Amino acid sequence: MLEKFLPYILLIVVNLTGCTVIPGMHMDYSGQSSTELPVAEKNKTILKKLNIKTITPQMIVDLEKNINNRSLGPNNAANLYFDYRIGSKSVKGTPASQSRNQYLVGPRDILNITVWEHPELTIPAGEFRSAESAGTVVGEDGTIFFPYAGIVKAAGRTVEEIRAELTKKLSIYIEQVQLDVRVTSYRSQRVYVVGEVNQPGIQTVKDIPLTVLEAINSAGGVRPDTADLRNVTLTRNGKTYSINLLSLYEGGDITQNVMLQHGDVLNVPDNNLNKIFVIGETTIGGTGSGRTRSVLMNKGRMTLTEALSDSGSVNQTTSDSSRIFVFRSGINKSEIFHLDAKSPDVLILADRFPLQPRDVVFVDRAEGIRWNQIIEQIAPTLLLLNAALGRF
Fold it and tell me: What pLDDT, on the 0 to 100 scale, is given for residue 74?
């Protein structure tokens, strides 16, 4: 009895597919974003639909004219995104350069004072006593006591200045004073190296000036897989400065190799903010389809081709390679880019299109795949109807 109604039932089911919810995300490309997005204009945030920009050869030429789109550009987005995301107000650039002055003695340093031909004035180290245990400790008030010289100010002075004062005071009692002063243990000045280094901890400032590069090397170097070399921070006297180690290592910018001083905190942050998200019809290792993949930018730089390749490339079976999009919620403004990669030679343009941290790359699904999904959704209903009709 129901057989004569089957064509009508099928027609109703097919019409209902227009209301069927198709799994997944799809980009309705009409030249503009489908929703309003926050955009910064005239120092305030407004909501507007964004124009979708097509990646063309001329766009690549224009991008490459701007030095900040290059990896070592001073205002490259990867250099600014760290502060933007965490809300830091670090000073871009390094502290004022300092001359390589001599070491200044400080409290808790241990001095070794020797007066030649007068062993009674020289504390003997002895066979079983180190110079540190036998030396003269600078007090918390910055002074030392020495026989016949009395109280002598040591903190904030060089060993030459301390030697000169001791010689002057002892010359009242000793003819032709021959006196030597050395620092045997440096304990007054400390620098803290933290973050993504192999051996974080405290380092002492000694008579040889301690620079950023030497401090990091003494800490066992950075962790290459997790360190963000672009956004190393130096906190000094209540201010935080941004140091770009990548410019030092690869660009030879020696101004980044700052001399450290007592109380400095050197932090090498992690690079978790420097990720690209690849969504849509990609293959992961050739085994999956449509899986989301976050790709870590190597040293804060990556092109669109690299992001697609690292995520397994586009799925040749299910993707629409003419509909690849890059969504950017940038530091200055939000943008949407479109790449038509139906012809593979367009990937040359993609390899010269620089991505920024937190960009989202979306590979859309082919139209035929969507229809197949609709068929898959209504197939159980048709089978159920067929089974029901078979029972009458």
Answer: 87
What is the SS3 assignment for 321?
strand
* Structure-token match 């309003």, residue found: 36
User: For the domain that residue 49 is a member of, what is the CATH number?
Assistant: 3.10.560.10
Q: 195 burial class (0-12, 13-18, 19+ CB within 10 angstroms)? A: buried
Q: What is the DSSP string of 285-309?
A: TTS-SS--EEEE-BTTB-BHHHHHH
Write the pLDDT tens digit of every residue in 223-272: 999 999 999 999 999 999 999 999 999 999 999 999 999 999 999 999 99
The last residue of a domain, from among 268, 294, 311: 268
Residue among 22, 3, 33 at smallest CA distance from 360: 33
Question: How many DSSP H helices and E strands does the chain contain?
Answer: 10, 19
| Structure-block tokens of residue 151 | 């109280």
Q: Residue 186: phi, psi to the nearest 5? A: -90, 110
Give kind and range of the element (H or E) at residue 100: none
For residues 173 and 202, state if they share a domain. Answer: no
* Number of folded domains that form the chain: 3
Alpha carbons 37 and 50: distance in angstroms, whole number: 7
The first and second tokens of residue 194, run together, are: 């933290």
Per the CB < 8 A criterion, the answer to whether 138 and 110 are in contact is yes
What DSSP letter does each residue of 200-230 carry, written as one string?
-EEEE--SSPPBHHHHHHHTT-B-TTTB-GG
User: For residue 128, what are the domain limits?
Assistant: 110-185
Q: Which of 126, 162, 114 is nearest to 142 (CA)?
A: 162
Helix or strand holding residue 160 (H, E): helix 159-170
The pTM score is 0.78
